[in-house]
């Protein structure tokens, strides 16, 4: 060690362990930058691509998550479901879901768009035979603070495909285990407002990596400064 540098064995061990942990965390975060960037690029490409026909069978909905699809079917005579949700601009309201029987296929849970909170009556939805074009999303899962759905009371907080299908009297093999966010139909300001697809996938791993590496350098600087200070005092 340099003359006058006496950090002590205990401090050296603690600083070394701290550096190993901080550098390890930084490296772990850095390793996620590439895969997350690739994922966001695939999502962007899927949203920008021309709609593809919805497959008759889709065992892995994740394989087409955020992909644009299109299908023809018939809107079933079931009561629509209002799920609490904000609009793309952050306004409080509901997403309106209804079941559509795919031609030569099963029932698709379709999100027809958003309506504001003060809108008590659900606007008229498409009926009969229609063509739905939109974005495929997997079933929603509730957050740790999200209340459970109350189907009987009409209070829905999570767009759980399976709970909605059960409410409509559908059995497991009668519906697809994903949902479709329909594009907007009609005038720009018409309700419901379709196309409510939000990509909430942050890519902050680089910032986190730099933070952990910065803390490691700070710890090293404190260790060196304390070592020289202690050496001078002795």
Automatic annotation (TrEMBL):
User: Which residue windows are transmembrane per the record?
Assistant: 7-28, 210-228
Q: What is one Pfam family matched by this protein?
A: SURF1
Compartments, as annotated in UniProt: Cell membrane; Membrane
Which InterPro entries does the UniProt entry name for this protein? Answer: Surf1/Shy1 (IPR002994), Surf1/Surf4 (IPR045214)
Q: Does the keyword Protein biosynthesis apply?
A: no
Q: Is Nucleus a UniProt keyword of this protein?
A: no
Similarity comment: family membership:
Belongs to the SURF1 family.
Q: What is this protein called?
A: SURF1-like protein
């Amino acid at each position: 060690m340099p003359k006058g540098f006496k950090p002590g064995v205990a401090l050296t061990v603690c600083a070394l362990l701290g550096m190993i942990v901080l550098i390890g965390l930084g490296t772990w975060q850095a390793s996620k930058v590439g895969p997350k960037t690739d994922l966001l690029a695939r999502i962007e490409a899927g949203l920008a691509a021309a709609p593809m026909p919805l497959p008759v069978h889709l065992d892995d909905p994740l394989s087409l998550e955020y992909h644009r699809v299109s299908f023809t079917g018939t809107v079933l005579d079931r009561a629509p479901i209002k799920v609490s949700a904000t609009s793309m601009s952050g306004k409080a309201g509901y997403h309106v879901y209804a079941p559509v029987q795919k031609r030569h296929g099963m029932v698709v849970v379709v999100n027809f768009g958003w309506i504001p909170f003060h809108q008590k009556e659900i606007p008229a939805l498409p009926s009969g035979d229609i063509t739905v074009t939109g974005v495929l999303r997997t079933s929603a899962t509730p957050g740790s603070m999200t209340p459970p759905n109350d189907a009987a009371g009409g209070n829905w907080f999570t767009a759980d495909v399976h709970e909605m299908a059960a409410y409509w009297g559908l059995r497991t093999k009668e519906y697809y285990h994903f949902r479709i966010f329909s594009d907007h139909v009609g005038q720009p300001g018409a309700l419901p407002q379709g196309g409510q697809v939000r990509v909430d996938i942050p890519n902050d791993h680089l910032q986190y990596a730099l933070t952990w590496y910065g803390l490691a350098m700070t710890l090293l600087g404190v260790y060196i400064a304390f070592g020289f200070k202690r050496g001078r005092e002795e």
